[in-house]
Amino acid sequence: MSKRMIAAGVTVALATAAASAYSASGGALRLGPVTKKRLPTYKAYYDGHKDVFLVTDVSTRKQARALRINYAPALKAIRHLPAQYFVRGRAAHGQLSVFGSEPGETDYNPLWEEFFVTWKSGVAPVLLVRDDQIKALAKQGKLTLRDAHVVLNAPVTKVGK
Fold first, then answer.
1. What would you report as the CA-atom Rg of the chain, rounded to the nearest whole angstrom?
2. How far is Cα 120 from Cα 126, in angstroms, rounded to an integer?
3. Do the domain assignments include residue 2?
4. Is there a contact between 24 and 56 (Cβ–Cβ < 8 Å)?
5. Which helix (H) or strand (E) element contains residue 90?
6. pLDDT tens track for 73-108
7. The domain containing residue 28 runs over which residues?
8. Is residue 137 part of a domain?
9. Domain total for the chain?
10. Per the domain annotation, does 1 fall within a domain?
């Protein structure tokens, strides 16, 4: 994770009212009582606005320890996921990670394939806020993209505007 990611607290219902209503109506889904807990959240860009997300699981033990989240090695086998881009090294002021999708998009998935973005020597970093912007700058030879071969479970909890 980028150190520049902004952490914030958000209260997350661990079981939704809808699930409780479903259970009460005779459905098979029984989640138990609703409880609330403060979980850390982060911000990332998507198409020029900031989304809020949680981080729950990751496919590498090292990253799981560093982030204090669940290590889930089976995630590594999942393919064809949207990208989440993390800038390493030099970055523009205010740089956050960048999503390749978000809820409401046809390819949205709370699982992300991590990519590392590195600015080439002699290129002044600009604020990266769109996945298409990152891909275009890579084609122009201004930055490099490297597949980290890591899958991160990081559901978006709030879409920005």
1. 17
2. 12
3. no
4. no
5. none
6. 999 999 999 999 999 999 999 999 999 999 999 999
7. 8-158
8. yes
9. 1
10. no
